[in-house]
Design a protein that fits this description.
Layout (H helix, E strand, L loop, with lengths): L4 E5 L6 H12 L2 E4 H14 L7 H9 L3 E4 L2 E4 L2 E2 L7 H10 L3 H12 L7 E5 L2 H5 L5 E6 L2 H14 L10 H17 L12 E4 L5 H15 L6
Parallel strand pairs: 1-6, 1-7, 2-6, 7-8
Antiparallel strand pairs: 3-4, 4-5
Bound molecules: cytidine-5'-monophosphate.
């Protein structure tokens, strides 16, 4: 069956998550936040006392992940973890477990199961390259490291982080560059723009403009569904 997939990949803080969610809502499509699955795997492993570099044990956790997505809420073994998976520590843990091939393999079928009618918008790093190589539209959404660091910095201020805890903007830029280099250099599913993905650079765009740019690509690439 021809179920359209819109694959949206790119680095962290590119605005990808928000844009992908808005595009899914406009199209009435399902939405996959694949980063959340890596974050949930890291949190579940830590809670089970599994070392994040124990590849087979973490893959076992990923294969049996007792996670549920209920509207905006995310549950792990029935426990609400919506906020708990968004911390910096879990972000770092997620990028560690994401570098393990057995963990990526264990999450593959689960991600593909999101492809249901009327269609799917999938957000991640390897949606167009590995998980949905046949996606009808592939977008690589990015922004300069400086723009992404500024957004992350602003988010921390808006979340009410105390001034004496707030990292310097220049440190956020440096960390952003280090994380990009790690994600691009890893041997499995490295972060890179696929040859058939269209680039959307949001450095000077607001969210509305970025959503419009992606919707343009979707209109060009995805045949309209007849009802
Ligand atoms: O997108 P998010 O920041 O939630 O992803 C957390 C981490 O999970 C990323 O830093 C990345 O290393 C990893 N990830 C991945 N492949 C995906 C989605 C996320 O490797 N498809």
């Amino acid at each position: 069956m021809n179920i359209p997939v819109i694959a949206i990949d790119g680095p962290s803080a590119s605005g990808k998550g928000t844009v992908a969610q808005r595009v899914a809502a406009e199209l009435g499509f399902h939405f996959l936040d694949s980063g959340a699955l890596y974050r949930l795997t890291a949190l579940a492993a830590l809670r089970a006392g599994v070392a994040l570099d124990d590849e087979m044990a973490v893959a076992g956790v990923a294969a049996a992940l007792p996670a549920e997505f209920v509207g905006e809420r995310i549950l792990l073994s029935g426990d609400e973890v919506t906020a708990a998976i968004r911390t910096e520590d879990i972000g770092v843990g997620a990028s560690k477990v994401a570098a393990l091939p057995a963990v990526r393999a264990a999450l593959l079928a689960r991600q593909r199961a999101y492809r249901r009618l009327p269609g799917l918008v999938a957000d991640g790093r390897d949606m167009g390259s590995v998980v949905f190589p046949q996606a009808a539209a592939k977008v690589f959404l990015t922004a300069s490291a400086e723009a992404r660091a500024e957004r992350r910095h602003k988010q921390l201020i808006e979340k009410g982080m105390a001034a004496n805890m707030l990292p310097l903007l220049q440190d956020v830029v440096r960390e952003m560059r280090e994380r990009d280099a790690r994600d691009a250099a890893r041997s499995v599913a490295p972060l890179k723009q696929c040859a058939d993905a269209e680039l959307v650079d949001t450095t000077t765009m607001g969210i509305d403009e970025a959503v419009a740019a992606v919707m343009d690509i979707v209109r060009r690439r995805v045949p309209r569904q007849e009802s």
